[in-house]
Structure formats: C-alpha cells, structure tokens
Amino acid sequence: MAGNTSAPGVTVTSRVLALLGAFDEHHRALTLTDLARRAGVPVPTAHRLVAELVAGGALARRPSGEYVVGRRLWDVGLLAPVEIGLRRVAEPFLHDIHAATRATVHLAVRDGSEVLYLERMRGRASVPVVSQIGSTLPMHCTGVGKVLLAHAPDEVQRQVLQSLQRVTRYTVTQPGLLQQQLEGVRRDGVATTSEEMTLGACSVAVPVMRDDEVVAAIGVVVRSLKRDRAGLVAALQVAAQGIGRSLG
Known about the structure:
The protein is α+β, with helices and mostly antiparallel strands and 248 residues long. It contains nine helices and eight strands. GO terms for molecular function: DNA binding; DNA-binding transcription factor activity.
C-alpha cells in the first residue's frame, strides 16, 4: 500500500493534490466535509492533511470554519515559467491597453481544453466580468478562448466541439457555427463574443505570436462593440505585436 494509506495505490501526495484540486472558481471556500467529499478522501484523513496544509500556509481557515487557498500556494504559482516569462513581458503592454481603453484587459493561455487567465486588469466601467487571475473558463464562449481554440490542435478542437455547454442564452452551442467562427478567427486574427459568457459583457481578442506560433491571447471586455470595435482591435494588435517581439 503506497504511502501507508488504506487504499492500494493511493499515496499521501495524491490525496494532498486531490484536496488542493477540490478548489476551483466555483468553490473558493469549502468546509472540511465538502473538501473531503470533493477530493474523495475520508474525513479523518482530510482533517489531518488539511491541518498540515494550514500549518504550512497552503490553506487558510476562516473564522466561519471554511477553508480557502493560502498565500503560499499563490507565491509558488507565480514561479511557474509561463508566469515569469509571458506575464512579465506582457504587463507593460497590457497597462497601455488598460490606460487607453479603461476596459478590463485579459492575458490568457490554453490549459488543455480550457482558457487559463494569467492576468486581468479590471476596467472602470461597470461591466460584469467573471474571470480571475489563475482561473479557467470555457474556450468556446470567451474572446481569448476562441482565439486559443482556433489555433489549438485538432484533437482539442474536436473535444470542445463535442461538449459545448450553454452558459447564457447567447452562448454558441452549434458545432457548425462555432467552426465557422474559428475559421474567421484564423483568417482575420480577431475573435469576438457578445454576452456569451456573461450577460451585459462583450469581448474582442487577438493572438500573441512567437515565431509563427500562437502562444497566448490578449483581449478586452466591454459593454458593447458597436462603437469602437476597430479602435479596440488596433490597440490589441499593436500590443500583441510588441509582446511577440519581446518574447522572440
């Protein structure tokens, strides 16, 4: 029995990772019982391991008794190569977009079949935004996600197209229509959404390229694209080219 646990093949490390993996953008605070259930770990074992994680700063316990991700995990996450390189290079360009548009600005990469947000600079306008730094969202209903999906491997595109979920009444869930949109993204270098992820929010995004390879996407979230779509696209493209040159 690996790791001196009660189930064959189950190690202490795998259980710790399962406990940490129980948190996501929809489950940011969990009770011990919920943690154990979502991780598939017995409550007594969860109690012992969670206490060690709290002592080490990986988790924190609120006065209510719920557990949240601790600061130490965030500090460690910032050491990931994708964070150190891409995020640091992109930051001044994202600041320029934010200053020029006053919109919410995103930097994202593909994480399997989802889009992972590396940076978010929130705009001043009261546009609803559900993204968080370090969170993942579906690719088919976000601007940066559509950019990354359009340039993803064929198997990833097939996986996403076979499991399109409706988030709002405007979410594109027809595979044929989404394929047409992805072809447009590859042709024009621009992706847009209109209330597909969140009601009252639209987005436009462009790819960041290094040596002819799409390595990331940057985008903005605004209330409407009817008035200044061309200006937003131009600002994003200038920034994307600058990031790409800096990475190269």
